[in-house]
Amino acid sequence: MSEKKSTQDWQALQQQYWNAWSDATRQAVGQAPAPATPWHEGLEQWSRMFADSGKQNETADRLMAGAKNYVALMHSMLGTASGKNVEAGPSQAWTDALREGFNLPGADAALLNNPVAAMLRGFSGQGVQGFEQLSANLAPFFAQARQEGMSWLQAPAFGYAREHQEHYQKMLAAFAEYQEALKHYNALILKSSERSFAIFEDKLAERAEPGRQIDSLRALYDLWVDAAEQAYAEVAVSDEFRKVYGDVVNAQTRVRSQIQQEVERIGTDLGMPTRTELNSVHKRLHELRREFRNADAVAEIKALRGEVQALKQALLRQDRPEPSVHKPTVAPKTRVASTRKVAPARKHVAAVVQPRVASKHSGDTFNDAITAMGGSAVGEPTRNKQPGARKKVSAPARRGDA
Amino acid sequence: MNPIRIDPQKALDEALRFNQKLAAGFKSLRALDEVNYGTTAKEEIYREDKLVLYRFKGANKPTAKTPMLITYALVNRPYMVDLQDDRSLVKNLLAQGEDVYLIDWGYPDQSDRYLTLDDYINGYIKRCVDVVAKRHEVEKINLLGICQGGAFSLCFASIYPEKIKNLITMVTPVDFHTPDNMLSNWTRGMDVDLFVDTLGNVPADLMNWCYLTLKPVRLLQQKYIGLVDILDDKTELENFLRMEKWIFDSPDQAGEAFRQFVKDFYQGNKLVNGGLKIGDKQVSLKKITMPVLNIFAEQDHLVPPSASRPLKQHVGTKDYTELVFKGGHIGIYVSGRAQREVPSAIHDWLGQR
Prior knowledge:
The complex is a heterodimer of chains A (402) and B (353). With 402 residues, chain A is mainly alpha-helical. Chain A has 15 helices and no strands. The longest helix of chain A has 45 residues, at 162-206. Chain B is built from 15 helices and 12 strands. Chain B has helices spanning 8-31, 89-95, 117-136, 148-159, 182-187, 192-199, 204-212, 216-229, 234-248, 255-267, 270-273, 305-308, 311-314, 331-334, 336-351; strands spanning 42-48, 51-56, 68-71, 82-84, 87-88, 100-104, 141-146, 164-170, 276-278, 281-283, 292-297, 320-325. In chain B, the strands form 3 sheets. An 8-stranded mixed β-sheet of chain B has the order 1-2-6-3-7-8-11-12, sandwiched between helices. A two-stranded antiparallel sheet of chain B has the order 4-5. Classes of the chains: A mainly alpha (402), B alpha/beta (353). Chains A and B meet through helix 1, helix 3, helix 4, helix 5 and helix 7 of A and helix 1, helix 3, helix 5, helix 6 and helix 7 of B.
């Protein structure tokens, strides 16, 4: 195809494209972009026309951000489809068109040939908290601080304003560290973008087989997305990325922390409540609640122990020989005391007590639990219990343990 | 052979169609109201702080004798399990005869900043389990833990094995240090003390951003370009918006619980390495002796299968079953395949025990 013919085709396609786009816009919002508007400005115009999308504004914003990039991409690829750039070799031409398509006119130079970074930065919506957003929001403040000749911030601090000066120094240092960390992070994102095109070419080569060829712009874009995700994943699971990501998160957090401290200082000077004070209240409240809950549990355990003790004494009384048989009057007391000290007996008591908490079908009180488990076995004094009898008592409790 | 065969006129038509759909679609978007979610009827059973325990009501009475409690993650809203009428794990479980309860954690605010994993696991979950068990007059209930809620369920089942009859984990991370776990790789370089001390609660927007950047091109751009294809289909558009709402409708994370989760699970990998304590209670997966059904998704980018699979070698039970689902972390609840396969698999497995 001659260069002249190719250019004519391309212009004709562009004109058709523009006319149809204008029609579509006119139908949707009642007006069309000005005829002489370059396509990328037309997109901006479009964004404004669709600015208010009611309750779905957030989604509409994201849709527009994605569509803007995709339309640019299609525009770039249409040129290749018309044969404008095929001299470089078919695959290379499409890759170049794709690469070029991501470079939106007027975009930051840092985003050149770096579509992944462009996507991370371009994602819109309320509350988006990417690394770039915080940096962009704070950059003017720190730039102004530098411009205003705050060179004293570099000097040793002394005198009345010593603390403030030191704090500002720390704040500036934190921001500088953050920007440095962000630079390393962005370098890795750029690496993943570059790698995406290499993987894309490999994937394209695989499509040379009959029946697997790409026949639409969308399919071509989707193939690049697969390549981009693969490239990003390679970078993102690396040890290098772990270090760089950790550094950028930590540096960003230090900047936030420094800003918070400054806001707190101002708040304190103005007699306003601060985050630290509120945290302190919340912490105390939380500790109180824990104490309360623990006290509740302790009280319940204490009550249970009381019940167990009372029960033991009742059992001992039942077990006590008739008055005609002479026994030392202190014996039961001694026996109870010794029973409590013998490990197996305690274990047994614990096993009996457990279902009261764990099992609700046994009833709501300890006595109900005992009854449900077979009063006769429980009725035997612990000190007289034979191994078989003990098993009989504790079996239901163990069911609960299993 | 040239790998690309794009006809210029077809390419132009494709571009025009895209623009026309986009323009018309904005009209549809404007006309749409807020989307609703959670269609299955439910009743509130128990409430504590911001937590609400619900019991779902099916069309018929449950036939299962043991109730099932779903413990969802803290990082998203639990209505994903009952997103809409034709995409509802809960509805399908009810249809199978299960008696389903769900913990809704609510939206923590700064007053919840000092909630710890001890509060969540030994406190909230334990009390919910007790409430459900008491209502049904049973000693043990079935516990279904999802994602982070699955990790919590593992801890709970290890500490209180006497309270759990069967344990089901869905897309649950167990080994946090497998090489393909992107999220884990990122958190391991983080100074989480500085992070929580500075932020207090971790803002939902920050969490969302982190999740989106796991697959930035797909989730920040390709998804919205795909949306253009369905802009003229009201039902599909509402489905998309419902999902979109769920993705971005996230609670902030209680600071102390987040700190501990990142330190002990993501950084320390203590579920696998040992040494995990929740409050004053030691967690050991070996103490999980009840039957376990571990369900995970083959294409899960948040919890890769490699993170879920190791459960088998660490639990104490001999009755361990795995279900590998062909789909992703979200698809396991909402895809058509999920509706057909997951609830019946859970029900059948429970029925055999």
